[in-house]
Specification:
The complex is a heterodimer of chains A (116) and B (334). With 116 residues, chain A is of the alpha+beta class. Chain A contains three helices and five strands. In chain A, helix 1 runs antiparallel to helix 3. Chain B is of the alpha+beta class and 334 residues long. Chain B has a five-stranded antiparallel beta sheet with strand order 2-1-5-4-3, sandwiched between helices. In chain B, helix 3 packs parallel to helix 5. The chains are: A alpha+beta (116), B alpha+beta (334). Chains A and B meet through helix 2, strand 3 and strand 4 of A and helix 13 and strand 3 of B. Strand 3 of chain A pairs antiparallel with strand 3 of chain B.
């Protein structure tokens, strides 16, 4: 799975990516040297769990399909893979889109990899 | 754009045209026509959904779309089907109440008004203190001249949402109505009844204008958010101040999303985005766009504070972040 994430990083020019479970447990990660894997995983998980809890409180039904967060020095995207989330960290100017082919390709490989 | 199936872009284009040419009947007609087309497309999709998986909220949405298109028979048909398929639910009574009231406003049949009141009362029994229900109880009773009942509902809303512009607008309107009644009674006892009915009959337009007047008293930031919410069709819009308090709330009367007692939830969403963006190391939070099957949320750093917009439309129907960004004039702080 880490190899797929590295391929995704190379294809999109992003700083890093990881797979986390719906309750925020990191499954696999591939980050560049200037990002601390454990730190990113912990806070990304925390954000995901918190946002999902808030969405449930406003009766936003169904799964969180995707989320893109932009900040002054970077951007982050979560994409639902049914039993886990793909998380991508990129630079602030990146136009992250869950339907981009490299993202969909990575999701396809990860899901099939898990099934196998 | 419509011919290419890009109705979302066409709508944004026409909204910009309306902004530039506010008095143009051609633009207004095109905008209304585009909205009907989008409603029809949304209808087709929702009908597919209920064929695959019948859900109460899908039936309610379909009924509401027909109400938007002015087709009352079909709007009622889907609610009757929902009544036969599903257990009694407050949202069904709310939608029935709204639909009867809409028809009353068009056709002026008092039985519709009375039926509307019955359904809203039942909705309130099933789901006490619900914002949408209370606002509609207030609106319907205002239109019917039942001031005391309208006031009771409005005060119930303002107890929980003291800054709600809709409720404040209705209260202001009711206060004016009472002043007018008192003036008329003072002038002549026999003229008091006709002055009452004249006040009630004009309630429809005056609630809106009162609300607009109330909006004019809010800050520039909240006015902007209210305008953006209106233009983008957002069903919930909020402003969280720099100090973390909820400075502004506006909730649509027609959504499956629930904003009851949501103040802490809204504040937490902003706080979590800000905190985690900084902690992850990607700098100061600017925006967050969340999407589900038939809803979206857009959180945006404003100047000052943070704005949140909720829609019950999918990302295929409208790109909420793009729609908001086009409408907003404030720039995201660097």
């Amino acid at each position: 799975m880490r190899e797929f994430l590295k391929e995704l990083n190379d294809a999109t020019g992003t700083s890093g990516s990881m797979v986390i479970t719906p309750d925020g447990i990191m499954v696999a990660a591939a980050f560049t040297a200037d990002l601390e894997e454990d730190v990113v995983a912990a806070f990304a998980s925390s954000l995901l769990v918190s946002l999902k809890r808030s969405l449930a409180k406003v009766n936003a039904q169904g799964q969180l399909a995707w989320c893109t967060l932009k900040a002054s020095e970077g951007a982050m995207m979560f994409v639902d893979m049914e039993n886990s989330y793909l998380v991508i960290i990129a630079d602030p100017k990146a136009e992250l889109n869950p339907s981009d082919p490299p993202v969909q390709d990575a999701i396809h490989k990860i899901k099939n990899r898990r099934v196998a | 754009m419509l011919g290419l199936g890009r109705s979302d872009e066409a709508l944004q284009f026409l909204k910009e045209a309306r902004r530039l040419f506010p008095g143009s009947p051609r633009v207004s007609d095109a905008l209304a026509d585009t909205r009907r087309r989008i409603a029809k497309a949304a209808l087709a999709k929702k009908k597919q959904e209920i064929r695959r998986r019948p859900r109460l909220d899908s039936y309610l949405k379909i009924s509401d779309l027909y109400r938007t298109l002015g087709d009352f028979p079909k709007a009622f048909h889907y609610l009757e089907e929902a009544e036969s398929r599903f257990e009694e639910h407050w949202s069904l009574h709310l939608t029935l109440g709204k639909l009867h009231f809409s028809r009353f406003r068009e056709q002026r049949d008092m039985s519709d008004a009375e039926t509307s009141v019955e359904h809203l009362s039942r909705a309130d029994e099933l789901r006490p203190s619900n914002y949408q229900i209370l606002i509609h109880v207030a609106l319907v009773n205002t239109h019917l001249g039942r001031v005391a009942l309208a006031q009771e509902a409005v005060e119930a809303v303002l107890t929980r949402f003291p800054n709600d512009p809709k409720a404040r607008g209705i209260r202001k309107h009711l206060e004016r109505c009472e002043e007018q009644v008192a003036d008329a009674e003072e002038a002549a006892a026999t003229e008091a009844d006709s002055a009452d009915s004249a006040g009630s009959e004009s309630a429809a337009g005056r609630v809106q204008s009162a609300a607009s007047h109330q909006s004019g008293e809010t800050t520039e930031a909240t006015d902007e958010i209210q305008r953006v919410a209106s233009e983008t069709g957002a069903v919930g819009s909020f402003l969280v101040s720099e100090d973390g308090s909820l400075a502004f709330t506006s909730v649509s009367e027609n959504t499956e999303l629930s904003f009851d007692a949501c103040e802490d939830t809204i504040k937490n969403m902003v706080a979590e985005c800000r905190y985690n963006a900084g902690s992850i190391g990607i700098g100061e939070f600017q925006s967050c766009h969340l999407s589900g099957a038939d809803w979206q949320v857009y959180i945006r750093a404003q100047n000052p504070g943070h704005a949140l917009f909720f829609t019950d439309q999918s990302a295929e129907e409208i790109s909420l972040n793009n729609a908001v960004e086009q409408e907003l004039s404030a720039e995201v702080p660097a």
